[in-house]
Design brief:
There is one protein chain. The protein has 202 residues and is an alpha/beta fold. The chain has a single domain, classed as 3-Layer(aba) Sandwich (Rossmann fold), CATH 3.40.50. It is built from seven helices and nine strands; from the N terminus they run βαβααβββββαβααβα. A five-stranded parallel β-sheet has the order 2-7-1-8-9, sandwiched between helices. The protein has a two-stranded antiparallel ribbon with strand order 3-6. A hairpin with a 4-residue loop joins strand 4 and strand 5. The longest helix has 23 residues.
């Protein structure tokens, strides 16, 4: 038996922290696949042009490829998934091998906006956090880890991140089985989810 656990939520809501907590709890029985791996390549564009694309719209991701990969993992097969470099806004030339496991954790801000991907998730979680908290976390992350300037992060947030969140991410919350406030800091919710998944496996 293989279980696909979807973890969605707004940018910097803490969904990756929740995913990592679940991943750590199940050890070798789990794999984690991020929707971020599947950003479409734009090798024909310059770095300047790529930096101005809308990366918060569902069309920016190769979700169809991710769906095929999840189906293969559910069958017990290994996959070669793409990887992405956020500092250059480009897909890396080398893919990464991922073996299948009993628990397949799928995380991303837009995973519930695609009906086929949503149906593949046996458990659907949504990590919730206040908009100002998410913005501060994103600003800190993008400046420190992704080589962005403060102004570029602010501009991107106002022009694409915030409106796309309101149009796509927030409405997808209704598809979740469980909403987790406070993200990775919600120990009670995370422990309950871990216990529930263990019971489902048994």
């Amino acid at each position: 038996m293989r279980i696909v656990i979807g973890i969605a939520g707004g940018t910097a809501s803490g969904k990756t922290t929740v995913a990592e907590r679940l991943f750590d709890a199940f050890g070798n029985d789990a794999v984690m696949l991020s929707h971020d791996y599947y950003y479409k390549p734009h090798d024909d564009l310059s770095l300047e042009e790529r930096s101005h694309l809308n990366y918060d719209h569902p069309d920016s991701l190769d979700t169809a490829l991710m769906i095929e990969h999840i189906k293969e993992l559910k069958k017990g097969n290994a996959i070669m998934h793409p990887t992405y470099d956020f500092t250059t806004h480009s897909r890396n030339p080398v893919s990464q091998r991922m073996e299948s496991a009993k628990i397949i954790i799928v995380e991303g801000i837009l995973i519930y906006t695609d009906s086929k991907l949503c149906k593949l998730c046996d458990v659907k979680l949504f990590v919730d956090a206040a908009a100002d908290v998410r913005f501060i976390r994103r600003l800190t992350r993008d400046v420190n880890e992704r080589g962005r300037t403060m102004q570029s992060v602010i501009d991107q947030y106002l022009t694409t991140v915030k409106p796309m969140h309101e149009q796509f991410v927030e409405p997808s919350k209704a598809k979740a089985d469980l909403i987790i406030p406070q993200g990775g800091h919600n120990e009670i919710a995370i422990n309950m989810i871990i216990d529930g998944i263990k019971k489902k496996l048994n």
